[in-house]
Amino acid sequence: MAFRGIGYGLTIAGLAGMVFAAVLGLTYAPSVSSEAWNAPDAYRILYLHVPFAWCSFLSFTVLFYGSLMWYLKRSEAAWFLFQSASDLGLVFGLGVITSGPIWGSAEWGTPWDWGDLRLNTFALLTAVAFFLVLSRRAQPDTAETRDTLSAVGLFGFALVPITALATTWYQDRHPGVLVVESEGSGMDPEIRTLLLLSFAIMCVLFAGLLMLSNQRYRLAAAVAERKAELDEEAMS
Amino acid sequence: MSGMIEAYIAYSIMFGLVIWFSRDLLADITSLEAELEALSDAVDNPSASNDSEE
User: Fold this and answer.
1) Cβ contacts (< 8 Å) between B15 and chain A: which residues?
2) Alpha carbon separation from A80 to A148, A189, B39 (Å, rounded)
């Protein structure tokens, strides 16, 4: 119960923090040169878009851990993590692949570039999360189903470093790594600080949602177990 | 075109996603807790639940 209380607290704090980050991004964040950018104000999308992308990477890291622990220990707790992480991967991934093309339309004049490695591997990563969520709901919850989906979860994690480093290896249209390499990129330190603050806030929200989601799947498992007990009693 | 409208649209979508997901989570937790409590009552006191069914 205390665990659930922390989950509620972190989620509410994270949502309030997200409002704060949005207000900072839309009003306080410095303007960028209208000569260097085609749609200078559209860059403000990045204050939520980038933390969303990092949180989706976090989701896939948790998904990897859940998949691995399911294989190694057959633990229910690992399967709860797997389910929560695939849901969160989908939510944050959808946020990225909808906000990104909105920025792309304004800045590049096109919402998508099928030749850009970062865009396409990230879309594939979100598609993996979508596949996992749909499959979990469509398939019977057996050990075999869990094994198959965990294998996909492990594969999905392999896309994280490929997506994260795509702009370093092969930069086409998507901007390169700016926050880590900001000294060399000429990024305004204020913009960098705001991005990191927004990411810290999003991590709080991510932790809260992960705890609540785990609680949901734990409760669902307890309900299923109790129903099975009652069925058994009724049959005997 | 400065892109401010696009920024508002993108923020609305991202907020919508996390708010929808949080609401869905909270609603599920509340209904599962109620269901678990009802099932626990049925396990602890089967005769009472049979009476109420009749």
Assistant:
1) 18, 22
2) 16, 39, 22
